[in-house]
Design goal:
By secondary structure, this protein is an alpha+beta fold. The protein contains 13 helices and 12 strands. Strands 8-7-6-5-9 form a 5-stranded antiparallel sheet. A 3-stranded antiparallel sheet has the order 10-12-11, covered by helices on one side. Helix 12 packs across helix 13. It starts with a helix and ends in a 20-residue tail after the last helix. About 8% of the residues have low confidence.
Amino acid sequence: MGALIEQFSELLKTEVISLDQPVKVWQIVLLIGILAVTLLFAGFLRRWFRRLFTRFRISENLTNRLLAFLFLIILIFGIGLGFRLSQISTGFLGTLINYPLTDLFQPTQKPPARVETGTDTDTTTSEADTDTDTATPETGAGRDTTSVDRDDNGLTLAKIFYGFVIVFGMYILSKYVQWVLRRQVLQAFQIAQHTQFILLRVIHFTLILIGVLISLSTVGVSFTTLALMFGGLSIGIGFGLQNIASNLVSGFILIFERPIKIGDLVEITDVNVFGRVRSINLRSTVVVSLDEKEVIVPNSQLVTEPVHNLTHYNNRYRIRISVGVSYNSDVELVKKALLEVANTHPEVIKEPHPEMDSVTAPFVRFINIGESSLDFELFAWIPDSFLRFDVASDLHFMIWEKFAEYGIKIPFPQRDVHHFYPKENG
């Protein structure tokens, strides 16, 4: 047994690969084990985060993207941890990850020229060389301070990756905070849905902004650079990003002025959109149509174009049903039939309460004596404007059956067609 253990120990110490340093069997085994544990841990986190994102009400497409990004983060961390614990040199890969990207945009520095003194043996270096190579107490003998500063403040792929990880973590934290506030705080205080949306949006953008600032600080971007970036961005907005800037400003107007709120039933006639508002984002608004399709509407269109908000003041809606009957019909019987139909439907408001402003019981108007018919209109109020199409369809069915019961006929235009034939010559 001891000999077997000794042979196994010798096997683990066997060198199999030579990179910058020799790699032994135990190092490879340890690396593979760490990668396997990383994959198992990534699968566990993937299932756990999927359930968490479902609670946060994140869409399926965004959930898949976030889970893919999370898997890449865990995999990269696992690979780095595996190489570190197994003591395997990353070689060129490590150099690439930690290489200062700013050096790619720096011009190549030529070596300082030497000044000849006129003799073949005696040469003196330039003043720049003397200053560079002189040992001082601050820098030490022969130290290159430029390289030290570059290594400390340079922009590398590793720092960019850490910046993305910070933003991703702040996004997850923002969703968790919103979920907790929505379930534990806002519902307990019975705050209106649109007010909840505004508060949660402000918290979300605040946390994301904090994450971006921390990420930029980690990467090494100074506030002076940010000022230059925003200055260039303002010029870009003035020339080519006017539409995006208009949508962003319109988004703030919709959120704080509240001409349209979450849950409102809107009708945008220019684009033939009718549905309920699901969310108001900075750039666009999501409207769910009657066939459960999400329509993305730019915010600037909701601010500048006419929008019919059916539920801005209340949810009630008045239905108008037009019908024509023949000349020999009894108009009082027609009125009676229409009122019976309206009072029979369960969704129609029969006796409005005093606090219902402008809401009346169903009534009929005799609006026109037409060329072929006597025209009437039935007016009826319903409590939910989202049901207006369904209720109107039901009333049409019921009117047809009621007219058939009372013998009321609906006319159709009659035309006399005269044919003229040309006379034959001769």
